[in-house]
Amino acid sequence: MNAPAFTLFDTPIGTCSLVWKDDTIVGLRLPEASSATTRARITRRWPDAEEQAPPPAMKAVIDRVLGLLAGGKVDLSDVPLDFGEAPEFHQRAYAIARTIPPGQTMTYGEIAKRLGAPQESREVGQAMGRNPIAILMPCHRVLGADGKMGGFSANGGVATKRRILEIEGAAALGAGPLFAGLDRRHG
Known about the structure:
36% of the residues lie in helices and 14% in strands. By secondary structure, it is α/β, with parallel strands linked by helices. The protein has a 4-stranded mixed sheet with strand order 3-2-1-4. Strands 5-6 form a two-stranded parallel ribbon.
């Protein structure tokens, strides 16, 4: 396997970065304070990563992400992802979260129930907080009980999470502030 490569790309929410090895995505970072900060974070996590123009397969992924962030109902669940050495529980939680369509949400508790571990909603929250592949593994679509925003570890915190959900049309589903009463059903 080759060393990872990365590129920065502009989106409606700021400059994001995509990190890949061969034909598999290993990271998608949401906007940092600056491009330099983004590059520094990437090289801390992937010290041998090289910045380069994306090959056609990665350009196609970027175009799909841009379509989603332009308000399209783009399904990204087929994009190959590699979560590296993430714990098995986290990877199972990620697999469930990837089934949530754009504009819809699920709670940490609902994912825990689907995992057969209804008492593990906090562990699901920890998995979402450690997600290295934002948007493609849509941790932003996972909310706390009763549709509460919960935390969000990306730069900008909950405001970034809220912005992505608004772009996806989730705010239109809500009945009150911060998605109170949000219809979380899907599929």
